[in-house]
């Protein structure tokens, strides 16, 4: 079922951010014990875009108009981010999948959705597909390691793994150290992981403000504090199962992966998985939006999604 913008039920329309593309509106939706802000626009079968950290739904602004030509595009702020609430708990990725299910239900959008996730959003997207496979017609994972399917090994600093996962999981310490240094962190992180020129000073200032102060920072770091729990949940969901039934596309940052088979970690669990390296850094939908839209459309075309 697809609804035009003026027909959307069950959600409170809220103020339009300056960055929001024309024909999208933001709704504040009470579901699963919290309130989620979601931008909605377009017509056609539903597509959900889930952002990463330290970003918000604004991360998809360069691709939303094109995708809305063929889909009803739903672009939430994850709990703890943007205009969504920042509750004390509930950041397990399976629980955030329930946030998204509630958003679609309140918007009156039924039937399976294409679910696209980047970074932390990809972890939520995978948990959604694993816990409720009938909800997801196709799954797209952008430049993310998945808990229980290789993330833990990549977190092992003793073997040369990435230090930041463990640091971000520490209670209270990251908020204390990052408070007052948000712009410095965002500028350094985005600069190191993206193609030069992708982000303007205004972009960096926006994301720094979105996570300014200990409470907003906490909402972001809570995403990391459940990662070990998330891995246990994913392995349990996949145990005894033939794998995820939907087609899955894994997109990695070509600047960083070289010739590696980017779909390899998922192949034992996903029969219909393909992988591709983007001509970009980590922020694929912002660095190469036209390439991303074209790749997504080609992936979805065989299934008629």
Automatic annotation (TrEMBL):
Pfam families tied to this protein: Abhydrolase_1 (PF00561)
Ranges of residues in domain AB hydrolase-1: 45-155
Protein name (database record): Pimeloyl-ACP methyl ester carboxylesterase
Organism: Kibdelosporangium persicum
């Amino acid at each position: 079922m697809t609804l035009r913008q003026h027909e959307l039920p069950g959600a409170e329309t809220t103020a339009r951010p300056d960055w929001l593309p024309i024909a999208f509106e933001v709704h504040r939706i009470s579901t699963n014990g919290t309130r989620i802000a979601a931008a909605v626009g377009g017509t056609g079968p539903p597509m959900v875009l889930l952002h990463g950290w330290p970003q918000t739904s604004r991360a998809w602004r360069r691709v939303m108009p094109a995708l809305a030509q063929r889909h009803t595009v739903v672009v939430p702020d994850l709990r703890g981010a943007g205009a969504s609430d920042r509750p004390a708990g509930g950041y397990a990725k399976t629980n955030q999948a329930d946030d998204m299910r509630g958003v679609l239900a309140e918007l009156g959008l039924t039937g399976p959705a294409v679910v696209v996730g980047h970074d932390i959003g990809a972890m939520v997207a995978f948990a959604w597909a694993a816990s409720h496979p009938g909800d997801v017609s196709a799954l797209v994972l952008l430049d993310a390691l998945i808990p229980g399917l290789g993330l833990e090994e990549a977190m092992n600093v003793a073997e040369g793994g990435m230090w930041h996962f463990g640091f971000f999981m520490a209670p209270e310490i990251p908020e204390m150290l990052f408070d007052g240094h948000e712009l410095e962190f965002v500028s350094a992180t985005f600069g190191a992981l993206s193609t030069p020129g992708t982000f303007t000073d205004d972009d960096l200032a926006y994301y720094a403000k979105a996570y300014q102060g200990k409470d907003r920072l906490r909402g972001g770091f809570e995403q990391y504090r459940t990662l070990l729990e998330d891995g246990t949940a994913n392995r349990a969901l996949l145990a005894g199962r033939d794998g995820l039934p939907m087609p899955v596309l894994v997109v990695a940052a070509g600047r960083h992966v070289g010739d590696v088979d980017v779909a390899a970690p998922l192949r034992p669990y996903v029969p219909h998985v393909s992988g591709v390296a983007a001509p970009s850094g980590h922020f694929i939908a912002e660095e190469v939006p036209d390439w991303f839209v074209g790749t997504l459309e080609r992936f979805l075309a065989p299934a008629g999604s």
